[in-house]
Amino acid sequence: MSVTTGPRRSPAKAVIASWIGTTIEYYDFAIYGLASSLVFAKLFFPTFDPLAGTLIALSTFGVGYVARPLGALVFGHFGDRIGRRTVLVVTLLMMGGSTFLIGLLPTYASIGLGAPILLVALRVLQGISVGGEYSGAVLMTVEHSERARRGVRGALVNTGTSTGMILSNLVFLAVLTLPEQALLSWGWRIPFLLSGILVVVGLVVRWTLEESPDFVEAKQAGAVRRLPLVEVLRGSGRAVVLVALATISAGMVFTLTTVFSISYGRLALGLSSSTMLSVLLPAAVVLLVAIPIAGRLADRVGVRRVFLVGAAGLVVTPFVWFALLDTRSYGLMLLGFAVVFLAYSANYAVFPVYFSGVFPPALRFSGMGIGFTIGTILGNAFAPAVAASLLEATGGWWGIALYMAGGAVVSLLAGLALRLPADGPAAPARPTATGPETSAVPTAGA
After folding, report:
1. Where is the Major facilitator superfamily (MFS) profile domain (predicted)?
2. C-alpha Rg value of the chain to the nearest Å
3. Distance separating alpha carbons of residues 264 and 179, to the nearest angstrom
4. Which residues are CB-contacts of 395 (< 8 A; sequence separation ≥ 6)?
5. pTM of the entire predicted model
6. Residue 170's CB: how many other CB atoms inside 10 A?
7. Do 245 and 410 form a contact (C-beta atoms < 8 A)?
8. What pLDDT, in 10s, does the model give residues 62-110?
């Protein structure tokens, strides 16, 4: 009797393929955020005064996050129906293509109102693609890994976030050395056009990766659902909501430290953008080191415990960060970034194994994708614009720090309520006596 077997697990290859995709995703998103802070106000919204133009440009940054749920719905459906691999190839092409096209856009001076309209349209495409990219990438890694190593391998994929941010900042730091006329005419396009090279590399690696073993097992067991979105909302709606709330703080911190901090340094501290980038870049090395360590620690002491420690740290560290930034001392500013990044690393490192573990394989893409993308709207999307508004209204940083601390409290409470099934991350769904489509869907409190 022949036995149907799924593909062998390829954890190293899955980590590399997913890490490259996550790096590209955050490189593309970060260069848009940096351009919003530095040049888009002049290029696409020149009819407004500098602060208002910057606020509008930062708001277009948030549009990409608002579009993410659509991507989560569409790509989550197909990821749970036909598999992770094909979906990840499509999302990578969409993300890289839209970013590359932004680098070719005419500006307001060339075509008027059409320029910002096209910019927002491409930003929406970025958001739709990312709505499927992150969840699919971390699932491929987690599901290719044995349970005892899922924390550290998922965390390694999450270092792609900081790697993409570092690459984007290095490229922008280089183009900022150009004379202003050159920067505004063609220099700003370089970071966007370079995305095309990264996408080619990512596609080569991703195309050769086998399908997720957990998905193949679910498919062979007859557990794949016709409408996974309906099933996940019916059986794990509470988990979706808690994942969204648990995501808020890390998203808020990452966006404000890597995007808004550049504007804050210029508007509140009187420091140049290049000076702020020169502080941010070496501080980001903390993320590359601390995130894998936190993932490994989660494999040893528990995923939820590490998440909660990180969330608790993010209640306090925004106040330390701003206080040290206001010294304008390079060393103390660097220390401020390092402090908040340590707490962020503990919290963010376990997202892949924690959030995927509360959903069964047949519904994982949809459940994690929807929860995570809603959380990014609440946390990331308009955080730079809100922070800029608070700075303008109060003239200081206390309101912004309280805003960040409030987000951390929400995520901490969600983490306290969100629990993995008693036996660890959800096991592959199995057919039951009533048929292949009736296997139980564990909830967050199972």
Report:
1. 14-423
2. 21
3. 23
4. none
5. 0.79
6. 12
7. yes
8. 777 778 888 888 888 888 888 788 888 888 888 888 889 999 999 888 8
Q: Where are the alpha helices (DSSP H) in 326-350?
A: 330-349
Distance CA 435, CA 438 (A): 6
Q: Indicate the angle between helix axes 11-38 and 50-66, nearest 10 degrees.
A: 150
Structure tokens at 64: 């990409």
Nearest to 28 by CA among 189, 254, 171, 192: 192
d(CA 44, CA 170): 23
Residues making up the chain, counted from first to last? 446
- DSSP secondary structure letter of residue 113: T
Residues 215 and 143 sit within 8 Å (Cβ to Cβ): yes
- Please answer whether residues 223 and 439 qualify as being in contact, where contact means their C-beta atoms are separated by less than 8 angstroms: yes
Instruction: Give me the amino acid identity at 25.
Output: E
pLDDT at position 441: 34
Closest CA to 89 of 204, 195, 258: 204
pLDDT: is 4 or 9 the higher one?
Answer: 9
CATH class of 11-210+227-417: mainly alpha
Backbone angles phi and psi of 79, in degrees to 5: -65, -35
pLDDT given at position 209? 77
**Percentage of the chain with pLDDT > 90?**
29
Cα gap 77→439, rounded to integer Å? 18
Domain layout of the chain by residue ranges: 11-210+227-417
**Residues whose CB falls within 8 Å of the CB of residue 34, separated by 6 or more in sequence, listed in order:** 168, 169, 172, 191, 259, 262
Q: What are phi and psi of 95, to 5 degrees?
A: -65, -50
* Overall average pLDDT of the 344-366 stretch: 89
Q: Find the Cα–Cα–Cα–Cα dihedral 105, 111, 116, 117, rounded to 10°.
A: -100
Query: Per-residue b/e over 37-51, b at no fewer than 16 CB within 10 Å?
Result: bbbbbbbbbeeeeee
Taking a C-beta distance cutoff of 8 angstroms, is the pair 249, 410 a contact? Answer: yes
Say which range, 3-12, 120-129, 205-214, 428-437, has the weakest mean pLDDT.
Answer: 428-437
Quote the longest CA-to-CA distance of the chain: 75
Token pair for 375: 């959380």
Return the beta strands (E) in 227-292 as ranges.
Answer: none
Torsion sign, CA atoms 30, 32, 33, 37? positive
Residue 271 to residue 275: CA distance in whole angstroms: 6
**Measured between alpha carbons, how far is 82 from 90 in angstroms, rounded to an integer?**
13
Contact 269, 326 (CB under 8 A): yes
